[in-house]
Fold this sequence. Notes:
Blueprint: H1 2-12, E1 15-26, H2 32-48, E2 57-66, E3 73-77, H3 85-103, E4 112-123, E5 145-149, E6 157-163, E7 172-174, E8 177-181, E9 184-188, E10 192-196, E11 202-206
Amino acid sequence: xxxxxxxxxxxSTDLVFTRNRSAYVRLSPEAADxxxxxxxxxxxxxxxxxDDPGKxxxxxxxxxxxxxxxxxxxxxxxxxxxxTGESIRKMIEAFHIxxxxxxxxxxxxxxxxxxxxxxQAVLAMDKVKYEKxxxxxxxxxxxxxxxxxRFLAEQDVDxxxxxxxxxxFGDIIIGPAIIREPMSTTLIMSGQTGTVGELGxxxxxxxxxx
Length: 210
């Protein structure tokens, strides 16, 4: 029931209210007071629109770039509380870490320039609880049948077909394979494996044998 599952996900999703403000500022201890004012003003505005501000978790971030660049690295974490020179140091450090994760390089000698400041008020919602799937007690996962798929390659591809309801937590399916259920179909390509998680989710990854 993919549609119902998506609806449950929406009901479980935290409510997030966001304020953004553009401000091109070279990050340095001298900029702390200006940045602090920006966050305080945005957070006051957010609190005015919440029925119970005390229940909200405040999350700060900023989008920035290295001096001279034209593209930004988004959602860099910002410390809570009053912005100080030490806060700026942590923001710069967090930027370089996020930059390396996204772009594969670090240029810590270059100044960091902020472009957008962001603050979020996060209201936690009750979560739907799902039953854990049982583990397979004996034997291995077995295909229901084999079939041929066309148009995935120049020639027809032989695949194994499995029924979702027959799977157990920890089962591993090696592609190419198809997993069927009443209202959806999952395709695991050649060179991939699908692992059934403890809640019945299927985690598809590249095979370690490739």
